[in-house]
What we know:
By secondary structure, the protein is of the alpha+beta class. Helices cover 42% and strands 19% of the residues.
Amino acid sequence: MPTISKENYLKAVYSRVNEVGSGATTSALAEKLDISNAAISEMAKKLSEDGLITYAKYKGMELTGEGKKIALRVIRRHRLWELFLMKVLDLSWSEVHDEAENLEHSTSDYLIDKIDHYLGYPKFDPHGYPIPQKNGSIPKTPDLIELKNTITGIKYKVSRVNDANNEMMIYLTKIGMSLSKEIEVIEKLAFDNSVIIKVDSEKHSLSEMVASNIFVERIN
């Protein structure tokens, strides 16, 4: 069975290639996992020897069929745990990520299937990411727009938030933002690319970094 560190690497490769839509290069993975390029390269060599990734220096990594299967299994556990912690234990969407990071590695397939059944076979986690199904299929997601690319005067629904930065998630919780929340884009400031939005009749300014991690659907 893969170790926890290998599972995290495979999950990170999957995320870069299939969800971020960019290459799983050594530098990109080093930044995401907060470790050195040398450590990434060393693990890439081991994963390649195990038949879990294909790796070409300076070109990045791709998952093999077996590597993708393991990555999806870990992601499925993580996202179901997030939803369970939020729905059943009433944790906020800013609290569930770190807890799920720990639980995803130690949960049996039997227990995760029970959680899936208890929750009614959900398709999306609390942050809007699709939950891989037991057979490995991925629920279809709508076309989403980065908040930084929206149009002023238009109302949108929050459909996904990158939850990797806990400090950002705490701030979004504080201003009342949540999944499916209706927001209105009031103004976009060209000098720093920040976005001013209205949430529950209150105006808030979001930096370009924050606005690039929030994805929405137009509702009017």
